[in-house]
Amino acid sequence: MAAPNKPSLDTLGEIFRFAASRFRTARLAYGHGTTNARDEAAFMVLEGLRLPIDRLDPYLDLRPTAAERARLLTLIDARVSLRLPAPYLVGAAYMHGVRFHADQRALIPRSFIGDMLADGVLPISDAGKVGRVLDLCTGSGCLAVLAALTFPRARIDAADLSAGALALARRNVASHRLGDRIALHRGDLFAPLQGKRYDLILSNPPYVDARGMAKLPPEYRHEPRMALAAGDDGLDLVRRIIAEAPRHLTKDGALICEIGRGRANLEAAFPHLPFLWLDTEQSEGEVFWIARNDLMGPRASRPAHES
């Protein structure tokens, strides 16, 4: 017997339309891999049954078993009632077709830096010459994995303060069989990496300011606070990264860092630094690139209030 107030939901297409309708009515927040109710519903029904997530159309007439149907309806109910992000519910997230395990020990995999790695738009002339890469604040390890795929000859160090996040990162590194190229380190920023230098340091650190933290939708409050909150202006960790990065970059090395909507604050804090802003189809002024030589310039690493 069909549940009260629900359609028969015999096919995946009917379940998808039901989910999208419920999500719209509930006015959910998105941003963890999708941007709207239809895409969220498609992702959940496909990943919920471990089907390829790139196209829904071939599966619209599929008739799930009673157990599969019950699982999908439970996921849909949880998405609405608990406001948990979809990747936490299904245990997976994707970046450019690469699948990552996801759970509440780390931020859900997402980063404009990942887009840049996958699309090959970084100002690097020869990816094959990149020998050492550091992923700072690695979280789930998603950027470390994408960096390993982008730079085929590179060895990757990935660091994070959270033991739980590193356990998840270890699982992702293992699932992509990259344990021989990616080494995980626990510690506060560069602390566990003394003496090491890199051709490229990439980081998607905590960067949400106090005002932004106060306004986070419920979905984002399920993510680890320590991976989001970064002080009054969102630059607590970014300041330290900029100050310490030169000691860990090779002569021609560079830092790429995502800071969300903190561009104005960053440029005010470091008016002497020639940041190169890298954009994607979905972002503008949220990721900067800066070479070691520029970081080493006169007074470069000193914030404006210390000048």
Automatic annotation (TrEMBL):
Keyword entries, A-Z: Methyltransferase, Ribonucleoprotein, Ribosomal protein, S-adenosyl-L-methionine, Transferase
Family annotation (Pfam families): MTS
Signal peptide stretch: none
Molecular-function GO terms, alphabetical: nucleic acid binding; protein-glutamine N-methyltransferase activity
Domain of life: Bacteria
GO biological process: methylation
Residues in Methyltransferase small domain copies: 129-211
GO annotation, cellular component aspect: cytosol; ribosome
SUPFAM superfamilies on file: S-adenosyl-L-methionine-dependent methyltransferases (SSF53335)
Protein name: 50S ribosomal protein L3 glutamine methyltransferase
Organism: Reyranella soli
Phylogenetic classification of the source organism: Bacteria, Pseudomonadati, Pseudomonadota, Alphaproteobacteria, Hyphomicrobiales
